[in-house]
Amino acid sequence: MLRSLFLIALSLQGTMGDSVTLHFDSHRGGEKQVALSKGRSIKVVLPGNPTTGYSWTEDAVPSTFVKPLKAGYVTSQQPGARPMMGAGGRFEFEYEALQPGRAELKFVYVRPWEASNPSADRSHATVVLDIAADGTAQVVNV
Q1: Under a CB-based contact definition with an 8 Å cutoff, are residues 39 and 131 in contact?
Q2: 50 near 116, Cβ under 8 Å?
Q3: 83-122 burial by CB neighbour count: b if 16+ within 10 A, else e?
Q4: Strand 101-110 vs strand 55-60: parallel, antiparallel, or unpaired?
Q5: Whole-angstrom Cα distance, residue 67 to residue 94?
Q6: DSSP strand E in the chain: where?
Q7: What is the rounded distance in angstroms from the CA atom of residue 7 to the CA atom of residue 50?
Q8: Does residue 93 have a pLDDT over 50?
Q9: Largest CA distance in the chain
Q10: 74, 89 in Cβ contact below 8 A?
Q11: Beta pairing, strands 66-75 & 123-132
Q12: Cα(16)–Cα(37) distance, integer angstroms
């Protein structure tokens, strides 16, 4: 698989509560790498459509390095709009970086009732976090 490498410096001026948002473009997942400062938060956004039965769930989250803050599904429909059957949206997971080191956040897109079936169709997404004591955040591999 051919990967595009980007080095995008993200300015994180302000309070320790500043957040970096990392978007995956496909429900097929992939891998991304981010350098992040201790105390900062990261939001991982994965597209999906629970009306198909599939949902993104956390597969592995190293609690030594990150603390989960929020997780949920957000519809792509506009507020107040007439509901559309089958409309997709995004799954969002937010974490705070607790201490310096390397951590992997792993997610799986699978139907919950097929999760234990090794031959079930599924997708994986991985975020590799390089957590520094201080500094700016950089998306290393997109």
Answers
A1: no
A2: no
A3: eeeeebebbbbbbbbbeeeebbbbbbbbeeeeeeeeeeeb
A4: antiparallel
A5: 9
A6: 5-10, 19-23, 29-37, 41-48, 55-60, 66-75, 89-97, 101-110, 123-132, 137-141
A7: 33
A8: yes
A9: 47
A10: yes
A11: unpaired
A12: 9
Query: Which residue type sits at 44?
Result: V
**Cα–Cα distance for residue pair 92/15, rounded to 1 Å:** 22
**What is the DSSP-derived secondary structure letter of residue 81?**
S
The set of residues, in sequence order, having a beta carbon less than 8 Å from that of 1 and lying 6+ positions away, is none
For residues 15 and 17, give the distance between their C-alpha atoms in angstroms, rounded to a whole number: 5
List the structure tokens of 16. Answer: 């320790």
- Which pTM does this prediction carry? 0.80
Q: Is the pLDDT of residue 9 over 90?
A: no
Residue 105, amino acid: L
- Extract the tokens encoding 126: 């991985």
pLDDT digits (tens, 9 = 90+) for 15-74: 344 789 999 998 889 999 999 999 999 999 999 999 999 999 999 999 899 999 999 999
